[in-house]
## 1
Amino acid sequence: MNQLKDSQNNSKQAFKDIIRTYETMAPKKAAPIITEMNDEDAVEILSSMKAATLAKVLEQMTTADAARLTKKLTEQSS
């Protein structure tokens, strides 16, 4: 049981580190990487970003990608 808890804690920390990495990247560099991911992973990352960072990243995406991912973000929060 302790191993499972440790594994979950390590996984949560790894995800936080990934978010921090994307938030510190230039939006111009992060946007094309995120749009190459499957939508589920992209939405998970985008939904964890601070609003100001999210806006800057979405600005750097094509209109179609930004619209698609914004719609999925909205659906996720519903």
## 2
Amino acid sequence: MNETTIQGYHAHVYFDADSLDRARALCEEAVRRFGVQMGRVHERPVGPHPDWSCQLAFDSETFAKVVPWLALNRDGLVVFIHPDTGDDLRDHRDHAIWMGAVRPLDLSQFTG
């Protein structure tokens, strides 16, 4: 097995109209506590994601703080976490970490 360099991580917090405020508060608190980068709050599916979502981006050192905190504070929200190695297909398909329900991703954009 080759060693792959992980350039960082993305955590995608999934939500719907009923949980929008909880998701926004969770993401904003992650920014405040850990200095992660927060993407836009998408009120529609974007990219391979089947649900509304907001992305948090962070480095490997921050992973050990953010992921346990998300596990304890996600308040029923689904969180999809993956490394950023430059191989989007494998990152989303093979290296995924799910908190809550596993949701079906649309990986067709990564397969050519």
## 3
Amino acid sequence: MRVESQQITSEIIDFIHQFPEGLPPDAETDFNKLALKLFNFQFKFNQPYKKFCQSKRKTPLTVKDWKDIPAIPIQGFKEMVLSSEPVEDVEAVFMTSGTTNPNAKGKNYHPTLAVWDASMKGPFKQFVLPDVEKITMFVLSPGADLNQNSSLSRYLTNAVTFLGTENSRFFFDENGLDMEGLAVALKESEERGEPVLLIGATFAYVHVLDDLKEKNTRFKLAKGSRIFDTGGFKGQSREVEMDRLYSMFKEYFHVDRTMCINMYGMTELSSQIYDQTILSNHLTGTTVFEKAGPAWVKTIVLDPNTLEPVGNGETGVIAHYDLANWNSCQAILTEDLGYKTEEGFVLLGRVKGSEARGCSIAIDQLLQANGK
């Protein structure tokens, strides 16, 4: 990596380690300073992003606040190479699943995974395991050995490596999900009174629950057990309402909603955002369902037509500012709708139809600025 890349990644990792449990109000200027420095770096070395910013008349000379850094439409990761470093020698390339168009997968290039790993570890501990040092994890989705281009696969492997006990196991291999092995392991952990963390993509649980229903099997997992899901049902052939899914977790695993947590992440980001269910109950005994991220991620909600910020409680399109996303673009305009509250934000679903006007305009600006 070039010297400038080494310097900016070092500063970002220092920031991650400095604020492991959230950003105090008196550190807002620290975030702004680093965000502007990162904007200058990406404007200099990421040419497609630079052209996009210039088309919006936003440059390091004119932008003084992180909220004014142009957020690149998520579609840009499918249309062009967004990388500040040459892509030939990167350590990893994470790709989107391509559920909408298998031939157009978004790519996020990682010259080093040091920042990505540092961004993942602390928040996972904070939001998923605030009350225990380690836990036995039963993983229902592929690990990094089966899919090196999946950010989720690396995430799951890291979770087990960093915070899983020796009894942790993956139940997904080249043959698919091992239902029988999972049932045996769950029964053994139930008999031992050992808390477990079930962790995997949301849709994996549909298959597990179908199998348990067919076999009329239920478990009473030990106190402290929890269930982690991510991804929703995007692109799947069947959908299950999330509330219904969580009620089934209670029925089939004896795990209460307060011990269930959904992780919101995407290939195009380098950090993850979480339900605050487990953390809030651990800290205060009350349940906060809104999502929140770590100190190095800011989330704002924008008017779908103008892409101007809206107030708390107003529905709009979500944009994330992720300092860990140092090599591509720190500011990402998603295709997700939601609204903010005093506690965090609520995810409502995908932007569609007339709601997508602002996003469509931003995509057109990006493509035109890059001669596409």
## 4
Amino acid sequence: MRFPWSLVKTMGMHLLRSRMRRLTRPPLVLMLEPLFACNLACEGCGRIREYAAMAHHQMSLEECLDAAQECDAPVVSLCGGEPLLYRDLDRLVLGLLSQKRFIYLCTNGLLIPRWLDRLPRTEGLTWNVHIDGLENTHDTITGRPGTFREVIRAIRLAKEAGMRVTTNTTIYACTDMHEVIVLLEYLTELRVDGMLLSPAYPYECLQSAPVSSASIAERTRLAPGGCLSAPKEFGIALAPMEQKNAENLMSQERSLFLTRAEVAKKFLSVKNELRRFRLINSPLYLDFLMGLRDLPCAAWASPTRNVCGWKSPCYLITDGHFCTFREWQEKTPWQSLGPGRDPRCENCLVHYGFETGAVFAAQKSLRDSLSLALWQLGR
């Protein structure tokens, strides 16, 4: 099976209960960012730049566990930043498991050896390792020579320790899809449990001219933790070092991103070859990436909680932060978001919104439901 049977069963029961309670926007995956700090500065990562001024802050263990209870999604994706830098990671994982949640620990992989003996071996915990190509490509994107070899070593150690390991590969404009196929073959040899492919998203903070902290502070309110909750027309304040390099970064990284048509062309070029691999992309989402079908964005099913509060509207776009999950659900203007409604969403095809969209689309179609069922039961 693509996912543990216990996860499939839990997700099915969660959707059934949501339907019986007539919930229109039930959360499926909580994107929990206990910190923004990272030990790498990868190209195309807007997170470390958008929240650069908050890199020294961390959520408390209690805040993290309370957020999971408040949202009550069956799956928690621990991300950031680099979650393996979080001081209470072992206690957080155990706390989430005691709440009977499934955890995807999203990491660049460099610190896995540090935590292997401190985290439980259970199907409820999956290490989701970021790897963007073979050695030269991955090291270039991470900006640090040797990271590919360190990550591969960490994956081997995790598998030898009996851990469940998946990978996440971002597709950029410069990505060679033949190299991606070779990477998937190599990861298959390493016995990883699943591989995710997702196109890069052009973060808003990389496209807006930098604005000083003082300028924003004059026109915005402070959210929890002192984070800025900025109106759409203003950029995000960058830390001094980031401001210095912002123009170079924006020019360099604009060339990384793809339009919808360009994404479809890349994925169509390897359509038949992708069938050979244990992808955790659903067939509905893959068809969407290839431009063969449409899917609704269900970003509301993947709420983000971080140091600043409940991030609105979604994991990738920041208009502000709410103090409570309920406020985030009720006050985010969902009807004005998505392709065709908000220009920032026009070229977004990332799995946070559209893989969850595939889940809800399948509930309305017997054919799509069968397609997902057969995929889940596949090798």
